[in-house]
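Posting for a labmate who doesn't have an account.
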Amino acid sequence: MKLTFATSLNKATNIIFLTDKITNLKDKLTPDNFNYFKKYWNDEDMQFVKATDGYIFVVKTTKNNSEKIRKVAFSIHDILKKHYKEVYVSCGNPEYSLAFAEGFLLSDYQFLKYFKDADKKRHTIQTLHLHGGVTQIELDELNNLIDSVYWARDMVNEPVSFMDAPQLAAEIVAKGKASKYKVEVLEKGKIESLKMGGLLAVNKGSEVPPTFTIIEYKPQNAKNKKPIVLVGKGVVYDTGGLSLKPTAHSMDLMKSDMGGAATMSATIDALAKNKIPVHVIGLIPATDNRPGKTAYAPGDVITMFDGTTVEVLNTDAEGRMILADALAYANKYKPELVIDAATLTGAAVRALGTKTSISMGTAKDVYFKKLYKSGQKTNDKVFRFPFWDEWNSELKSDIADMKNLGGPNAGMITAGKFLEHFVKYPYIHIDIAGPAFLETADSYNGKGATGAGVRLLYQFLKDL
C-alpha cells in the first residue's frame, strides 16, 4: 500500500475525518451527515455512514491518545480492506494523521506467499492519502519504517524449510545492498576459527551450517562517537535439541525463535533508510537447534568465544548460548551501549503475557527511562525487571565457570544474568518472547509475527 499526500478531498470516496470537535466538520460534511455525526458524537469514538461510492468516517480524537487512533485505524481498515482501492484521511493534527496511517498500514500486512489463491485473499486497498499538515519527510519516514516492520514479520513468518541460517544471512545481505549499509557474513569455517563455542555447540545437531552476520550502518553525521551494538537471537527453528520440548504444541511456533534477529536487522534497515544519524552495528548469530546424531548434550562443557566454560544442563536453553558468543564479540567495538533482543524464555511470557517485552541490564537508568518512554510512544511496550547480583548464585557450576540454566523461578532474570557475564559494556537485554509471535490476532499487530521491538528500538535510537 502506498502512503501519499492528498492536496484536496474533491475526488475522495472513502474519507476518514479525525477531529476533536464535531463543529470543525460543519463545512466539510453535508447538512444531513453533519447532523447525524453531531447527534452521536458523545456515544462512540468512531461513527460512519455509507455513501454512494464509499464510506464517511468521523473519529473523535483526544490529547495524548495515539494508540486509540491506531486501533480505530485497524477497525476502519477491517471494513474497507476487501472492497476499495483508495482511502483518504483528513486531519489538522500531524501526530494523529501519522498515528492513523501507522495503524492502517500495519493492519494491511499479509503473508500470502504459500497460498494457491493468494490473489483472492489479497487486500484491495492500494493507496492511503493523507490530507493535512504532514510533511513529505514524515510520510517517507513512516513508509520506510513500516516497510522494515513488514520485512521483520516476513522473516519470522517464513518456515525453516526456507528460512534457515544461510537464507537469513542472505536476506540481510540483500537488504543491506538495497538500503546501503555494510553486511558481512561469517561462514562456519570462520566461526570455528573464532572459537565461538556456543554457536557451534547448538549447531552440532543440524545438517545446515551456522552463520554469523555482521551489519554496520555508519552515516558520516553520526552523533555517537562509540557505536551502539544490536544483537539478535537467530535460532531459525528450535526443537529443544536433545532436551526435546516435551509438551504438546510447544514446537509449533518455533520458526519464530529468530524473532530477535529479525527485530535487530529490521531496526537497522529502518535507521539506514531514514538516514537517522546514529552509528549502529548488528550481530546476528544464526542456527537451528535439532537433536541430530552429534547434537550437544546435557552435561557437556562448552568453551565459549571469550574462554568461559559453560556446563550445559538443558540444550533447550540454546538462545543464550549463541547470544553469549555474539555479546562477547561485541566487546571488540568498545560500544557506548549493547542491546540484545531475543525470544528467550517462556518465563517472560508467563510474567507479562503477550502485550509487553521485558528489559533488564546494567546500562544507566537514563537509557531504560528512554526505552520505556519509546515503548509508551509506540505502544511497542517494554517493562524493566530487577537485575540484582543475587541471581548469579543460581548459575554456579560444580565443574565449569558457570551453567546455562538457573533455578525453577525467575527464569527470565537468570537468563539475563547469564548473558551479562559476557558483556563488558553498558548492556540492555530485551526478552520479546511474549509479543513477537501471536496465536490470536491483536488489532493492527495481527496474527503470527508482529515485528515486536522494531518500532520500539527505532524510536529509542532516533530519540537517543
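Reply:
Got it, the C-alpha cells are right above this. The CA atoms of residues 102 and 183 lie 29 Å apart.
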